Sequence to fold (537 residues):
Amino acid sequence: MPDYDFIVVGAGSAGSALANRLSKDPNKHVLLLEAGGADSHPWVRIPMGYGKVFYDQRVNWKYTTEPNKTLDGNRIYWPRGKVMGGSSSINAMVYVRGHPQDYDHWAKDAPGWSWTDVAPVFKQMENWLGAPSPDRGNDGPLSVRDIADDAHPLCTNYLKAAEQAGFAFNPDYNSGQMEGAALYQITTKDGLRASAARAYITPVQHRSNLTLALQAHVQRLCFEGRKVTGVRYLQKGQLKTAHARAEVILCGGAINSPQLLQLSGIGPGALLQGHDIPVVQDMAQVGRNLKDHLGADVHYRSKVPTLNQVLRPLSGKIRVALQYLFNRSGPLSLSLNQAGGFIRLREDAASPDIQIYFSPVSYTRAPAGTRPLMTPDRFAGFLLGFNPCKPTSVGHLEIASPDAADAPRLHANYLSTRHDTDLMRDGLRLMRNIAASPALTDVIEAEITPGPAVTSDEDLDRFVRKNAWSVFHQCGTCRMGRDPATSVVDPKLRVHGIESLRVADASIFPDIPTGNTNAVAIMVGEKAADLICSNQN
Fold:
């Protein structure tokens, strides 16, 4: 049985950062296990390629929720990265630190995680390619760029319309002042996706003390009493065991980390006993506190050309392909979520309660099971999308069987509170309010969906129930906190009651942050490294 000092389970956003940091010490041997394969597929490397891998089982777990009663029984698709870099290899690349109040709220039950504590970590991990700023890091491993020079011209119309509607332009929502309309910052460099794996693992793969095992799906944790001693994993049909002298750190994400804990006997006792899994630690909170951002779109037919006319025709596809091939520029080098921002819709909100996405493209007739980012509508169109930033609906997940190959049951429980239902309805009206500003009315031919006839509360609620979608920000299922009755890990990310085991990924978020979650997950990986290294010292 091979021995390592640390075993990191999952080479995603947090795991890549953590494995890099732990292996900086040449005397510490690190095993990084990834259930997926290499991130060498062209559509993983090309930024716009996320539309192609959205349903690709070669790099994607392709999860689906249980039927949602509050969404007319719809099952919601949850793509999750099963590849080096995890979901940072298949996401829309939008980089958001979160709001300072998010972390000050976390710190009430998790000392050491306030904005004052985490802001230096964000700065440390960034290679900011925009205008120099004392708030931004410029020598970290993760490249983050401003798209002001490359965004579609319609983004200017959107920003002017938002300002006309009362929402000022914010040139850097990651500076600590988050509110306002904005152009999104993305994790790319030289026209290529800058995933966590490319930022943290590719440059250090030569380290002799870092072992990377791909296609290695962890089945169970190994124990001596309540101490974790290693893992058992399946690789190319062969069951293997690896031993950890110091610690095992789970970085599988908000679905896989609680699933592995439950499979290993750490979780709700009745659930485990129902699957004949010996209970190591009866812990009710494993898999609970599940949160996600739920979104909805308003589509418009445009009087002026949009990316539809660039990406739809064969001539346009050839043109953008050549532009990317020779210059690493153009639409293929960007995300489609080019503009948006963070808006305080309600006067009593302490921080932004709506996030907006403006995309200069529309796909209103996409066949089920597709995300045709590069085959949009035949007519000129664009969309205004949004999600409430702080949903109060809480879901949970639970294993479906003792087999790690079986996906867990995902109970999203969307729109189970009046707060969330009201904000979705108000968000649709906000999109229409911005679209009614002169800068956008000048270019709008007609609203396509929901359609001008959909105006009443009842009709808007019905539209949301039928058309809402996940923004893919699942988190919270191994919640961090001081009290084992309400959390899974302590503020140092150690699993309550278990020795030599930590969790470090989006599952530990005490509450969902404001904005996209990838940057926050990477920060957790960096912070975990700080905690572990200080403990070793």
